[in-house]
Amino acid sequence: MADKKDGPGWIAIQGSVFLNWVNMQFEKVGLERTEDLATCFSKGASLIKVLETVCEKKVGKKYKENPNSKIHEIENLNIAFNFMEAEGVKLVNIGPEDIHSGALKLVLGLIWTIIYNFQVIKGFNKGAGKKPKDVLLEWIQSKIPEQNVTNFTSDWRDGKAICALSNAIGKELYGDDETLVSDIGDDALKNATQGVAAGKKKLAVPDLLSAENLIDENCDEHSMIAYLSMFREARIPSADESGADEEEEPVAIEAEIKEVAAASGDKPWERPATWREYSGPDLGGRLKIRVYFSTTTSSLIIRKNTEAMMRLLEAKKVHQRPDFEPMIPIDMDMEKEKRNQIFEKAGQRETPMLFIDDEFVGGYDTVVELNEIGELDRLLAY
User: Fold this and answer.
1) Per residue in 270-295, pLDDT tens?
2) How far is Cα 168 from Cα 303, in angstroms, rounded to an integer?
3) pTM value?
4) Three-state SS for 354?
5) Could you give the CA distance from residue 313 to residue 292 in angstroms, rounded to a whole number?
6) Could you write out the DSSP letters of every residue in 214-273?
7) Strand, coil or helix: what is 45?
8) Cα 311 versus chain centre, distance
9) Strands 328-329, 353-356: parallel, antiparallel or unpaired by DSSP?
10) Does 263 score more than 80 pLDDT?
11) Can you point out the beta strands (E) in the chain?
């Protein structure tokens, strides 16, 4: 198992989970979302704000919210590190300079330390000689004893335990007659997709971890603990949080277009290119499914997301359809004008990007969410 820990797989998954966690904290304090985990805390101010949120107290020292020099950024980071030390947090072989330089593995270590000390430990009486993660495991075992869960890795790979946990917490919140996930079988991805979606929609548990990553053998203990520990804060979500009003229009392809397609009975790629009215620039992708991706990105997370999106589409046999075009590099031999048209139509620059019938569906996170609520299949049947 040690060799996997040294490879890129666990870093990409953990990076995705921790990036989701950081953005969740950023949203709470009014900061813009970040896509660069390595540099998200490099100026120190964002780290201080996150610490104040998770600790529910102020650092007690004045800091530079908009530092304009390396000296001020390091000063901010020193304030943050001193604050953590005062709170009893031990950081081993991680210093302010490491975070300022954007050393990804050390940034991951810092975020894990924060999650462990202020999320995992929170609310637990550790008991004599017990580690917080062991107490968390015992809590999970008390909820789903029938699953015989003994760890945070291999016992979750078939997706059944996450379904069981969602069901168990659901019964506590909604009553014994409520079953959030009923169709649990041998399809690991389907199980995980349903379990994660139920946690988010019915229990207000953020989907830090995607279904695809949950069943991936490279998904490590830290990623699982960060996600599963949030089930202790489960609650009945508000109407806005459950997204009940958003499912009907997740992307720009209108519901009426889908009705026309269903009525026609035609295979999508056999329709005339004028079968519906199109808006925005013509990217040449009508009656086609396209994924635009970057070949030059230095972001391990973006590369991992690209691979995961392709695996998801392959699992749905999309790559065998005549209307699917091979992955299209957006930064190699593509004219700048064409690239800018794609960015304009998508309303974003981050890859990968999924387009169906020349309409932007979403990036990786959106596509995963659409799949979790069963909407992706409908869109692919345009």
Assistant:
1) 878 777 888 888 899 999 999 999 98
2) 35
3) 0.66
4) strand
5) 13
6) HTSTT--HHHHHHHHGGGGG--PPPHHHHTTTTTT-SSSS-HHHHHHHHHH---GGGS-T
7) helix
8) 16
9) unpaired
10) no
11) 289-293, 328-329, 353-356, 359-362
